[in-house]
Amino acid sequence: MVAELLVQKLGPEKVSMRSDDIEVHSTDKWYASHPPDLVVFAESTEDVSNTLELAHRHKIPVTTRGAGVGYVGGCVPMKGGIALSLARMNRILELNPEDGVAVVQPGVITGDLQTAAQSLGWDYPPDPASLKECSIGGNIATNAGGPRCLKYGVTRNYVLGLQVVLPDGRVFKCGGRVHKNKTGFDLVGLFVGSEGMLGVVTAATLRLIPKPPARAMLAAVFPEFRMAAAAVQSILDAGHLPSALEITDDFTLRAARNRLGPEALPDGQAHLIVEIDGRPRAVDYEIDELEARLGKLGSTRIDRAEDEPSCEAIWKLRREFSYSLRDTGLTKLNEDIVVPRSKLVELVEFARRLEEMTGIPVACFGHAGDGNIHTNLMVANYDDPEVRADADRALDQLFTWVLENGGAITGEHGVGLAKKRWIEAALGDVNLDVHRAVKNALDPSGRLNPGKFLD
Asked: 89 to each of 7, 39, 109, 449, how far by Cα in Å?
């Protein structure tokens, strides 16, 4: 009956019960899977509003989906019902350098927005590693980050206004298109990072900045991880603010050499990428100073990139790290934990002890400048229930250590299903009560993205 009502409201081309559509919308890049009863392919705010109003009236669960490239099961429809796809809402509605804004639908691919803004001499800085396939709506849902967070901040820093459909189908707007706005509560901040549990974003007004006219990069190899981590702090202490500081451990480097060939990455137990941007003469001066500093700090090899193609070649190498880990044949539990930057070395040393205690290899790489290090447990035979239980116990140890050392269990992927069991320890009782109060105020029946960390 509900499918028939949706077809009447939306049209037959927007509602599907085909097995292949059901299968695609059952999972993301994490291992969990649960089929929806049907899929709605929304093409407008009206479509979303009609879907949520009908679902609210008939008490049907709705799980919203962007590009489906998340790592925590955030868009898995655990209670069945409707999988609400926003992939067709993929238009850039406005690019306005005079106001410094872009207005986009949630299905716009992040890299496409960057390319469009840069063609006008402007930029949208947030740059998740999956920027060529992830969507703005998904970025907003998880408050996504990326390598350039150190200098430019995360998605929340660029969201000026939102159009949101509430769980009962009502449409409202928060924020706006001005760059300063203290009118009422920060409802924009409430929805950014809410993982699809409070409402469905159907349009976003995003802040653009002038694109720096020049950039340059250094890729440095160190004999020890500790030396690379010390270089990170030395760079910042010297007054530099790179747009990115990426660090990689020995396990990841060995996997990358296996995938890309030994000539791609020279011997060494740590790899550090430094990117700077700005005015051309300033970049020329700063890259010289940074190269000299890295040499003095013990780097055994430094590759230098001073134009767009050579910078992109280094970033392409960095993006291959995750695929290199997959090539090992092990299941990669991609944990985007965050620690205070002073704890980087201690984190990797703990990861090595965790390997020894559990027999599970741990690969560490990521955003050294803000302490967001992807700590990947590489598990063999993960489908075996006993092995999975062992991996969960190892994650218990990892997350306990992270929280005891002032860190967070997720920096950019979100909680979803993958980190649900640790959310109480991460938030604490009072914080969790506040989360539930907000959820109950906006979605008292709990029908929007059910089964996740507030259930």
From this structure: 18, 15, 10, 19
